């Protein structure tokens, strides 16, 4: 089951949020670890160093009070010594209680033993009342205690350095990993967003192209795409509309072909009857009767030509038109087409110019059909060309693509840009600048387009309002046939 647009957007958004959550969780974990290291420094190592330094200071204070008491035997100095000893015990008890490392506890144990020995030495000196050997032993004990406490301080300073290095390395590593995860998350988020947008926009674009094809009158291609459930009904509706329009177009083509075929026979009979009357086989005619019959003959001829064109177009669109494509000389076909419209050009005082390269131009084509296409192009140019103007038929060889380009140019009013995309549609008739629809069937360019494309060529049109129009098409060249 294909997901709807709503769930595609929801799931892609959740995936992006999950990626961002992973990055944030990792960053929070690193912050938590760095906070733990900082707490360890603030609550453990720094207080331990500070208390050890206080113990050293207190020890020297005791030593000074002891020396003063032994010198003058003043009870105040003895009281100071006892107070400083009590303070030493309090600080030492706190340090020992907070110490967690085995090495630190061992050092503190040594300090405790040495300090008790120092206290015993002081008490013994009081009872003996002498100083024999006391000072030397006292100094030695104080130095040992101080050395142990300094070693204890150095131990914590080393640990502080390790913690700081660990913090820096963790911070650097976390920064690198967070940056990389951020970039990866951004790329994945963009990829997910692009994939989701593509999965939604791709069927919409194809559906849009289908509507364009329908607008151009191409109903044959069915739309078969994978689309979200939300768009599936729209795709089905587009296919249903295409099918119905194809049915209507087929009905229209069948109707035109049938009507054209049915009209062709009576029109041919009318033309032949008109010719018999003009030949005065049933009897002589006066001038007015002859004029009326000529008008009837011309009108029936135009109708027969229009019906023949409609039938040919119906065959082309149904793929039933047969072409006799053989290498033919294009200049001869072009000159024959010019000769057909020369009288019409002279009647409008329009000069027909030809610009052909030297030598023969052999093209694989159905000469009769290409000549019909040229007839239509030249007739259009004469119809739109102003009196006293010129129509130019050019042939140009494109050696790079091995093709010949044929163009018909007029000096007429030109075609507005908004109408250029419709000129090859069947029954489309351009309008003059005043808005008046021009006379004609609107089949000439459509017929020419079908013929040229059936020969593997391309047709196009260029026009500028007030300066004229040029219709051109290209056909592939063929090698010249060998004589004999």
Structural features, described:
The protein has nine helices and seven strands; from the N terminus they run H-H-H-H-H-H-E-H-E-E-H-E-E-H-E-E. By secondary structure, the chain is an alpha+beta fold. It has three domains: 188 residues, Up-down Bundle (Four Helix Bundle (Hemerythrin (Met), subunit A)), CATH 1.20.120.1730; 90 residues, Helix Hairpins (Orthogonal Bundle); 151 residues, 2-Layer Sandwich (Heat Shock Protein 90), CATH 3.30.565.10. The strands form two sheets. It has a five-stranded mixed sheet with strand order 2-4-5-7-6, covered by helices on one side. Strands 1-3 form a two-stranded antiparallel ribbon. A hairpin with a 3-residue loop joins strand 6 and strand 7. The longest helix is centred in the middle third of the chain and has 82 residues. It is rod-shaped and about 180 Å long. The two termini are 70 Å apart. About 1% of the residues have low confidence.
- How many independent structural domains? 3
Identify the strand order in the major beta sheet: 2-4-5-7-6
What's the helix-strand series? HHHHHHEHEEHEEHEE
| Structure summary, number of beta strands | 7
So what's the CATH class of the largest domain? Mainly Alpha
How would you sum up the global shape? rod-shaped
User: Which percent band covers the strand fraction?
Assistant: 5-15%
**Residue share in helix:** 55-70%
Biggest β-sheet strands, sense, barrel? 5 strands, mixed
Distance between the termini: 70 Å
**Structural class assignment:** alpha+beta
- Poorly predicted parts: 433-437
- What is the CATH third-level topology name of the largest domain? Four Helix Bundle (Hemerythrin (Met), subunit A)
Using the 3D structure, state the CATH architecture of the largest domain.
Answer: Up-down Bundle
- The average pLDDT is 79
Computed Rg: 54 Å
Counting DSSP H or I runs of 4 or more residues, the number of helices is: 9
